[in-house]
Amino acid sequence: MQHVRHPEILALGDAGSTPNSKAGAAVRNQAPVLVKNLLVAINGAVPAARYSGYSSCPLATARAKMLLAEFDYPLRPAPSHPFIDSTKERRDMWLLKR
Description:
By secondary structure, the protein is α+β, with helices and mostly antiparallel strands. It is 27% helix and 15% strand. The chain has 2 helices and 2 strands. The chain has a two-stranded antiparallel ribbon with strand order 1-2. The longest helix has 19 residues, at 24-42. The model has no long low-confidence stretch (mean pLDDT 85).
């Protein structure tokens, strides 16, 4: 979340120009990384926290059903809830999105 040429600049979301899907899920995962790096940088150390590229896209598959595509930078599946299979269409996912 740190600029490559200007280390005093940290950003997230659309302003960060990260090569991932611009979604709320991405920002929720970027924010803790930015905070950790900012606190470290304020104290004069080198920021080391890294953002995995996590993002998610809700995909409607039928009326009142959807699945949640969750992935990282290399587009590998990155499920955020180990007990919920977000690759299968579900009504509860649709209700959550709605």
